[in-house]
Amino acid sequence: xxxAAPPGGCYFSPGYCPCFxxxxxxxxxxxxxxxxxxxxxxxxxxxxxFSLTGLGLVAFSIYQLNKTFLSALLPxxxxxxxxxxxxxxxxxxxxxxxxxxxxxxxxxxxxxRGLKRHTDNIVAIVTVADDGGSSGKLRxxxxxxxxxxxxxxxxALADDEALTTQLFxxxxxxxxxxxxxxxxNLFITAMAEVTGAFEKALYESGRVLNIRGTIxxxxxxxxxxxxxxNEGAQTRKVEGESAIPAAKLPIExxxxxxxxxxxxxxxxxxxxxxxxxxxGPGSLYTSVIPNxxxxxxxxxxxxxxxxxxxxxxxxTQPGETDDYSLEDHVQAIEAHAxxxxxxxxxxxxxxxxxxxxxxxxxxVFATPARDNSYTVIPADVVDQQYPWRHDxxxxxDELMSWYKKISNAG
Length: 410
Description:
This protein is an alpha/beta fold. The strands form 2 sheets. It has a 7-stranded parallel sheet with strand order 3-2-1-7-8-9-10, sandwiched between helices. It has a 3-stranded antiparallel sheet with strand order 5-4-6, covered by helices on one side. Helix content is about 45%, strand content about 10%.
């Protein structure tokens, strides 16, 4: 029975009471559920917060640890931007073209010094005919291949070029058995004794000094460079790399004894897989041509699909190329080896004449081939301070600029 409601009141019936109680309970449960959900979310957020904070602290600790180690290993003025730049530079270098260069003496090292700024994929094929000075003495007394030209190449390709050059070129002025020897020659010779082989000595020396490239002897055989020189009415034989320019007579031809020695196998592999093959610069008859006389080397160059370019010296060399023109240099190479160098890079800068104090030298300039058998690439590659030499950076820049042009055109 429903009771009367007071004015302004409401009527209650026993039938409505369960609904009301259920409504109140539902509200209470909803509130509890919401609270529980919020509590779980808060706990989850707290957990994520501390996890992220922990990861951040670990990352910061690793960063600080690396920074501490790097600061101990690197100069204080080295910045993160510099390190990033160097990482990018080295990655680009490792992806550079494979350039194979044949030569010896100081000319080859000049090119390598500039070339290593463009690519790490350098293979230097070096003559083993040197028989003068410290190299000749070590060769005769210890039976090793002459280390002098290899020493120059290692120093040129080393990461710390200035210090390595200073160290490797250091020559002992006194001391029984040491006088006249350079440290670099002794280092390579000692490494050959330790490793048991000259080619292994070159590899390990390069690894220790972190050189950018590979240095290979053209042959592992003990060869002697011979020459036939013109005495006017007759031809005379001259024996030995150092004796040939000392004869100061026109050279008819040079050859090796024994004839056509076996090439070092990696040399042929390098030539056949090259992106670019370069001969020179350097002494024409005693550094460049001897490599081409090693058995199968000239044939491998001809067989290679890579462009082939000869870098002509910027000046004549007394006793070897007196009064030679650009064409004379090219003809000498082709007469000895016919290796197929159909491009020639030559200096075109006439603004830096050779001084009168060096009047025994004559500049060699770019001139077109009269028979169109080769293409001349004229370029400013002369060293302004020493105009009878190449500038390493200018030479490498011009060479690689030309290579990119013909690569893109092809």
